[in-house]
Design brief:
This protein is mostly helical. The protein has one domain. It has 3 helices and no strands. It has helices spanning about 1-15, 15-60, 75-105. The chain is rod-shaped, with a radius of gyration of 31 Å. The relative contact order is 0.06.
Length: about 100
């Protein structure tokens, strides 16, 4: 019986540290969630900016400007998209110029 009462006293004495650990863990989780949500917000803004740039470039192409090119901020995935977009329109411009040159006497 004496051993049980000492164990209960030991547990009662650790109640405050357990609560403070729970508070620390809760605050860390809340901080992590804030960082995660902030990162998602920044990513969404970058995707929207990229979409707007492509939309503007396609609008210029639609108006007949075959020299339109895009330049994205430095990222590997967007760099690949930029290269594909620009090379496609360079090929289209070249083919159009060749067809016009062939059509003219």
């Amino acid at each position: 019986m004496r051993m049980l009462s000492l164990y209960v006293l030991y547990l009662e004495g650790t109640e405050a540290p357990v609560q403070s650990y729970a508070l620390v863990v809760s605050l860390l989780c809340a901080g992590f969630m804030i960082v995660l949500i902030g990162g998602a917000f920044v990513s969404a803004q970058r995707v929207e900016e990229t979409y707007r740039m492509m939309e503007q470039a396609l609008a210029e192409l639609r108006e007949g400007d075959m020299s339109v090119r895009i330049a994205f901020p430095e990222t590997e995935q967007l760099g690949e998209l930029e290269e594909a977009f620009n090379s496609t329109f360079a090929v289209l411009q070249s083919r159009l110029e060749n067809n016009v040159a062939k059509a003219l006497p």
